[in-house]
Amino acid sequence: MSVRRAGPSDLDALAALHAAAFRSGWSAADIAALDAVALIEDGAGLILVRTIAGEAEILTVGVRAELRGAGVGRRLLEAALESARADGAESVFLEVAEDNPNARRLYAGRGFEEVGRRPAYYPRPGAGAVDALVLRRALNTTP
Description:
- This protein has 4 helices and 7 strands; from the N terminus they run E-H-H-E-E-E-H-E-H-E-E.
- It is an alpha+beta fold.
């Protein structure tokens, strides 16, 4: 499979992938309203990245549960970094749940470093909330 830039005709597929990856998925209208570059690996995962004034933000990365650990997230992340660089970003930010070790390893392996924390940001049913770690990576370096 390969990652490609999604278009308006992919909004329903993006919403379905997001719903498959998260407890409360975003609708096609939610995704369209973000004004972000959407990249998709058909049937496997999605990533949304928005670039403004030299900085990019990864808004979401979602991979179907049964495909996690198969390199989909890495391919999506690499494509998003290239897209952000092409759109003039010098750095990329994202947030990750403190209790998500697989995603944290992926980001650390691609050069992201913790630059902040949002306490109790991600709700966890029956378990309170988990901090979000704010990560940053400069795009003029190679990890």
